Amino acid sequence: MNFNDYDTIILGFGAHTIKNRCVEQLKPLFETGKIDAFVTNGASILHDTEIALYDDTSEDVGSTIKEGKFGWNRRSCGDLNNFISNVRSDSLGMLIANFIGWQGKHRDKSVFWQAHQNQVQPIVSIGIGHDIYQMYGNFDPAAWAKASYEDFIRLTKIISEAKRGLFVCVGSKVFVPMVIEKAFSTAKNRDSDCVFDSLICDLFDLKDVDGSEYTKKDISKVGYYERQLKTFGRISENIEYLRIDNRNIYQRMYEEITRNR
Known about the structure:
By secondary structure, the chain is an alpha/beta fold. 46% of the residues lie in helices and 14% in strands. The longest helix is centred in the middle third of the chain and has 20 residues, at 141-160.
């Protein structure tokens, strides 16, 4: 798979990419100009904001959840909620990048900020009940939903305008495939002639998952229900699977893009 063969590349990942400080690999990848957007979830917002503000994130869920303390000591949640409630004129991804640019003493360590600096569109899809900032009293679901929907519209437009595109799904088994599936279908419904290939990256060996060869479509095998394979297999002309660590796939993409130019 030659990354330079594609006019559009869309990354998809969960909060693990943010928490693992993969910004070190994503920054130079964004700077190549080959990445058009990344798709992620609401948890990525919290972790990226905390890294940008405090150079620290996460907590020990196991030691706090049974006492009802999990999620209640996050200084950024109130500020994030206030910002999104009062500024409604942009996509959620770009709002977060702007908030980090305004408040983040460690903004250079932010994936959202690095995306903003390199004209990469951050796409964030939230789900009610998924994210810690929704536990706080000043959470405005209408404001967050409107901004998140704007991201979905932007993702659909990027897909629609692609000629030969590539989806790269890193580790997300359900969330990213579902969002991209809906955006792809919307683009096609509007008569887009886009064609996409897909690269699925995860940490397990497919041969260890019974029936994970999605092309055989054997519904009696557990591997048939590996959502990312099932989804991207339906919407892609060509699909590849790669067992690889988060950092390594971003580094590999950067090296191959710059080497083959």
